[in-house]
Amino acid sequence: MTQDLRPTTQAPQLVVVHVEKTAGTALIKALIEPNAPGYMRSASVTRYARHGWKAPAFIGHIPHGLHRFTRRPVRYATVIREPLERAVSWYYYIRGQDDIDLWERHPLRNFADRVTLVQFYRDERFENRQARFMAGLHYDRLYPTLRRSTLFRQRLLDAAKRNLESCAVFGVQDRFQDTVRAFEHTLGWTYAPQEKRWAAATKRRTLQDIDDLNPKILPKLRECHDLDYELYFFAQQLFQARYGWLAKTKVDL
């Protein structure tokens, strides 16, 4: 698949591993578009292997591992989010997508309408999505079959941590301003503030809303994201160790 790809002297490409609802769109608008014109966005490994490797930057809902499809040097970036905040945001985003764009219906909308929040994330396709994406393509593909194996789960988590450590730059969504600074500092980019997007017509429930309605839901939801939490706590510590000094700098966001 890689026989026609570029010589090894080509400039490194930034590949952003974008798990849904982890501030990826905000980074695209404010950092990637202004600083990497010609960037490509796709959720298809095939499309990356055919064309995406040529772009200065690539962002997609694809697990870590696209470097296997090119001889071009690749630098990874990502943003990690508090798992339950991300899970609730994505579920209600799917169910409210046609309130945001009247011409678009999310491909998971029919499924999300048929199941509860907890049932959605008990589906093996959507459990521990952040840890799986950071662990890599093979771990993500094997997870539905091997997710009950203690050894497999530990190896997946170890791989996710290693890949996060090896990222050229990464961020934590609940420290978005510091995340912007980390990207600016590491990549030599300039943050371009965007006007706030108009709010979706359907108000999405918060974790507090859900807990007030039924305090049994969040513990069950957390069980579906146990590896994500392990990665999230690791990411918080690593971010502080690597970029903590950036919090002392000032930038107008």
List the helices and strands and how they pair.
Layout: E1 13-17, H1 24-35, E2 40-41, H2 45-50, E3 57-60, E4 74-80, H3 83-100, H4 109-114, H5 117-122, H6 129-135, H7 137-146, H8 150-166, E5 169-172, H9 176-187, H10 207-213, H11 217-223, H12 226-243
Parallel strand pairs: 1-3, 1-4, 2-3, 4-5
Describe the structure.
Helices cover 50% and strands 9% of the residues. It has 253 residues and is of the alpha/beta class. The protein has a five-stranded parallel β-sheet with strand order 2-3-1-4-5.
Please give the largest β-sheet: 5 strands, parallel
Computed over alpha carbons, the radius of gyration is 18 Å
Report how far the terminal alpha carbons are from each other. Answer: 42 Å
Q: Uncertain spans, ≥5 residues at pLDDT below 50?
A: 1-8, 198-202
User: Which H/E pattern describes the elements?
Assistant: EHEHEEHHHHHHEHHHH
β-strand number: 5
**Roughly how much helix do the residues carry, as a percent range?**
40-55%
Beta-strand portion reads 5-15%
What average pLDDT do the residues reach?
Answer: 90
User: How many individual helices?
Assistant: 12
Question: Which strand order do you get reading across the main beta sheet?
Answer: 2-3-1-4-5
The best one-word shape is globular
Q: Based on helices, strands and strand pairing, what is the structural class?
A: alpha/beta
